[in-house]
Design the sequence.
């Protein structure tokens, strides 16, 4: 909670550095798509797991080079071992989906100066800080289950008291690039793509090692036991689950935490910028 409070403080601070007025401000929407990279993405961004996303945004143009942007976005991410290319992934047989709600403050830097009265195509890069909420779920025997409360890797059990349940609201760092252009006196359109580096490796509920499924079941219930190791669904009854306690359930690879992506087309209404005095950078 302390991290979240601190992040909100900096989000508010970033918008109070400059005096905001109706001059040099844009409001609009971004419509596009979202995806993710993590333990269930088969070491790639799988186009088949792309979902629609949308955002509301506000932009304050400080001067021709710099702008501040507030962003509130929604997207969905998902992944499934059944789509993987290796036998290991197909045997592991895990899957998830999650809705994501993000609020972030971003700083844009225009690579070409945005001069009032000239409707240039402006390439820009952006970075910032935000908070996002997620809640991984899966479908098991036709029913949808939230995974975090089940402690599928032994979180919340006395036997694995070093494994705490992960937070569902945490910090992200948006980074990306885009292009924007005024197409009328008050209308601007653009396209942007951004990655969100997160501070969690449990966006997909997968990160560590297998716990003893029987102990998970004893503490968290039969559904938790079934979803902690789903390899048995791909084997005969005689073989049962393939993995044992301590086997890798997730894996650590660059950048060590899960990431998600949002991008699309933006449409904003530009308030007239008359007499705005801009700080020099």
Sequence:
């Amino acid at each position: 909670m302390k991290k979240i409070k601190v992040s909100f403080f900096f989000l508010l601070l970033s918008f109070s550095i400059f005096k905001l007025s109706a001059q040099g401000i844009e409001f609009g929407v971004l419509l596009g798509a979202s995806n993710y990279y993590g333990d269930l993405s088969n070491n790639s961004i799988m186009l088949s797991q792309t979902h629609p996303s949308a955002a509301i945004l506000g932009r304050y143009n400080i001067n021709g080079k710099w702008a501040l942007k507030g962003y509130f976005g929604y997207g969905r991410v998902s992944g499934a071992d059944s789509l993987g290319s290796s036998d290991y992934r197909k045997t592991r047989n895990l899957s998830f989906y999650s809705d994501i709600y993000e609020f972030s403050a971003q700083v844009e830097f225009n690579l070409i100066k945005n001069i009032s009265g000239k409707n240039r195509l402006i390439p820009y890069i952006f970075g910032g800080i935000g908070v996002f909420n997620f809640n991984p779920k899966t479908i098991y025997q036709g029913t949808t289950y939230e995974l975090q409360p089940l402690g599928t890797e032994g979180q919340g059990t006395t036997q694995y008291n070093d494994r705490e349940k992960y937070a569902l609201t945490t910090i992200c760092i948006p980074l990306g690039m885009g292009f924007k252009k005024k197409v009328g006196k008050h209308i601007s359109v653009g396209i942007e793509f951004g990655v969100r580096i997160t501070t969690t490796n449990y966006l997909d509920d997968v990160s560590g090692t297998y716990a003893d499924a029987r102990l998970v079941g004893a503490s968290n219930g039969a559904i938790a036991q079934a979803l902690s190791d789903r390899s048995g669904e791909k084997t005969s009854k005689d073989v049962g689950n393939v993995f044992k306690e301590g086997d890798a359930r997730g894996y650590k690879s660059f950048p060590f935490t899960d990431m998600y992506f949002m991008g699309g087309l933006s449409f904003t209404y530009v308030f007239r910028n008359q007499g705005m005095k801009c700080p020099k950078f």
Observations:
- The longest strand covers residues 95-110.
- The beta strands are 25-37, 51-61, 66-80, 95-110, 122-133, 137-140, 143-146, 169-182, 187-198, 259-270.
- The domain at 2-208+253-270 is CATH 2.40.160.20 (Porin).
